[in-house]
Design brief:
The protein has 135 residues and is mainly beta. The chain has strands at 21-25, 35-36, 42-43, 50-54, 64-67, 82-85, 96-98, 125-127, 132-134.
Length: 135
């Protein structure tokens, strides 16, 4: 079981129509969102907005690594997905992910893709003092 409280229900995908923009994705208030439990009792609902930032044009054959976004409460576990596009014929790579250690402490890695041969949790090294994750 993942230590994160959030469970992915599905991905919502968009096609970016313009370069260099930021657009919010929110829950509508009409009709109002609702959730009902097995006893037909209405549950409280809190929707958190998301955001899409679009940069310039990307060559569609480029390898693109993307760190996802998430929202969480203070002292909660917040997990981000790292995804790749055009991850073809890659036989090796390295990179460093930076975070601000004044605000975040790295806790764990989850959902490692078993199809990445030669890659394991041991391939990742986090340093909470410098705010870096080295692969």
């Amino acid at each position: 079981m993942s230590p994160c409280k959030w469970h992915r229900h599905f991905d919502v995908c968009f096609k970016a129509k313009l370069p260099n923009i930021t657009s919010s994705v929110t829950f509508a208030t009409s009709p109002p969102p609702e959730a009902i439990d097995k006893d037909n009792t209405q549950l409280p609902f809190t929707g958190t907005s998301g955001q899409i930032t679009v940069g310039g044009t990307t060559n569609t054959t480029d390898l693109v690594l993307k760190v996802g976004s998430a929202t969480g409460a203070t002292n909660s576990d917040v997990c981000l997905e790292l995804t790749a596009t055009n991850f073809k014929k890659v036989i090796g790579m390295q990179y460093v992910i930076k975070f601000d250690p004044a605000f975040l402490t790295h806790k764990s890695y989850d959902n490692l893709n078993a199809g990445l041969r030669g890659f394991s949790m041991g391939s990742l090294n986090a340093n909470n003092t410098t705010g870096t994750i080295f692969l």
